[in-house]
Amino acid sequence: MSTRIQNNTPLRFDLQVIASWIRTGSRVIGLGCGEGELLAHLKAKKQVRETGIEIVEQRVVRCIEKGLSVIQGDINEEVHDYPDDTFDYVVLSQTLQQVYDPLALIESMLRIGKKAIVSFPNFGHWHVRAQVLFTGHAPITPQLPYTWYGTPNIRILSIKDFRAFAEQVGFSILKEVTINTDKQDKSGRIVQVLPNLRATYGIYLISRE
Amino acid sequence: MLRGGFRNECFEFLLDMSEYITHDQAGKSVGKVEKQFFTFAQPPDEMMLDSGASLGPITLAYETYGNMNRDKSNVVLVCHALTGDSHAAGYYSDADDKPGWWDNMIGPGKGIDTDKYFVICSNVLGGCMGSTGPSSVNPETGSPWGMDFPFVTIGDMVRAQKALMDHLGIKKILSMTGGSMGGMQVLQWCVQYPEMIQSAIPMATTMRHSALAIAFNEVARQAIIADPNWRNGNYYGGKKPDLGLSVARMIGHITYLSDEAMRRKFGRQLQDRTDLSYQFDVDFQVESYLRHQGAKFVERFDANSFLYITKAADYFDLTRFKNANSAVRVFSVAAARFMVISFTSDWLYPTYQSREMVQTMKKGGLVDVSFCEVEAEWGHDAFLLPNQRLTNVVRGFIDSVYQDTK
């Protein structure tokens, strides 16, 4: 009798992009790793040494069932204890927009990791802009499916905002991929023309200057 | 003996919980098991203790479940808590109505799967369930050790277990686990014999006792010492300090439960009466429950062992191992993958103490560390109760460590 999870579903498109950036055999920490989809993929396919941070007990249990090393806790707290450069990559997937102090978190990520990978939904997407412009309501889109009073997304940023943020704060963007995904995020394509208007997500590989 | 009726027809549901032994719903069990004994440290090769004293010969009672594979790579060592014993799973005989203390976790297809793993559990040094302790006979005098028994520490308990592993020809332990004081032994093993431990699951435990935990133990010890039958530990063959030991157990039980557990199980319900008695007899169900627990405990446990073992738990301080000045340095030698488990309602070793442990491991650069705070309402002893999430993480963790070794 085994409860080992058979993961036959393909990796979400944005996570495929992130996975493609990570070197085989590296040390990776996933902040807010959920049920460990990305980490399990990286462990199986790229033999990484993985660590996850996740606050919800049930998700932590799922991760451990899959054989992943995961610590239950708040990402803003848990990043503090690791020595400098403990990891090759620190991944923050689709969570930056939910963080109270994004600057402090990114600084911690760049301290404990040699590189960091950050992704977020693009509030500059034309769909969002059109909703605000034509309906006058706070936007609700497939990527941002929440009402204003129920949304966990407390930081509203666009692709352009993140680029400017890097410049103001002083970290380097090593790679930028902007993507447009289907409603389930299973498949997608890379957007090269007018990404701030046309991409639903931005994904960045960053490092200290 | 304590006054008050132990009529407990309506308490069967509690008694099951109190001893944390439940028959597996699926009826799966390791079946009949046998307590075994290993004696070592024969004079003059006695075992050196942390206190500087030496002790020998030493006998450890132990049990094993499942089969050791050819390369001895499937060994899981289980450590028991304060008043536990080597009987972690299965039955001694057909007439046995209760299985070992962790039968819900250890067995075929269970969290610690005896179809795959070879499980060992031994009674601690200083105990009274078959291993050498203060109730054993001092070979020099021919009578029980009593208070002449040397002080033992968690480190000494682990040293004795190491001798058992050597005897069984085991060089690597795939995984070791234990709750409460069992968890202390797990942690101690990981720094005392780091090369032997591939993975560790310390549960509901701590790197060192808080003042609160020491305080409860001290009150419990004083209850025994104040019993006139204790007679400075020389009660063997005469009247035993049952009153003191049962009060000690009652105190312990309060710390093993939780405010919520007690509120739910007992509230202010009266025991076998409809009105207050205006006597110092049993009024409330919780009083009856504690008295029953105390009375049952004295039948199976030695008061001097209780004194020695609680003191060993109080002395335990992993952060000062080998006079280290930092806990981070202590853990940095550990090579094990860790999974630290705490329980939401545990107020004896609260979650913050497990978090402290995890922080220490992280600061030491250990990355193969998992931590899960399991939602449980039953307090400190939640680790002993059937819990599907706990079973799942234990199974997932040990299986993945086993995969990695192949």
What does this entry show, briefly?
The complex is a heterodimer of chains A (209) and B (406). Chain A is an alpha/beta fold.
Your description of this structure?
The complex is a heterodimer of chains A (209) and B (406). With 209 residues, chain A is of the alpha/beta class. Chain A has one domain (13-123, 154-208): Rossmann fold. In chain A, 33% of the residues lie in helices and 25% in strands. Chain A is built from eight helices and eight strands, in the order H-E-H-E-H-E-H-E-H-E-H-H-E-E-H-E. Chain A has helices at 13-21, 37-46, 57-65, 75-78, 102-112, 126-135, 159-169, 195-198, and strands at 27-31, 49-54, 70-72, 87-93, 113-121, 171-181, 188-190, 201-208. Chain A has an eight-stranded mixed sheet, with helices on both faces. In chain A, helix 5 (102-112) links the parallel strand 4 (87-93) and strand 5 (113-121). Chain A is globular. The N and C termini of chain A lie far apart (51 Å). Chain B is of the alpha/beta class and 406 residues long. Chain B has a single domain (9-405), classed as Alpha/Beta hydrolase fold, catalytic domain (Rossmann fold). Chain B has eleven helices and twelve strands. Chain B has helices at 12-19, 154-167, 181-192, 211-225, 242-256, 259-265, 285-298, 303-315, 327-332, 351-363, 388-405, and strands spanning 36-40, 47-48, 54-55, 58-65, 75-79, 106-107, 112-113, 118-122, 175-179, 199-203, 337-343, 369-374. Chain B has an eight-stranded mixed sheet, sandwiched between helices. Chain B has a two-stranded antiparallel ribbon with strand order 2-3. In chain B, helix 3 links the parallel strand 9 and strand 10. The longest helix of chain B has 18 residues, at 388-405. Residues 1-19 of chain B have low confidence and may be disordered. Chain A binds chain B through residues 1-4, 27, 29, 49, 51, 57-58, 60-61, 63-73, 78, 81-83, 86-87, and chain B through 109, 113, 337, 339, 355, 358-359, 362-363, 365, 367-375, 389, 392-393, 395-397, 399-400, 403.
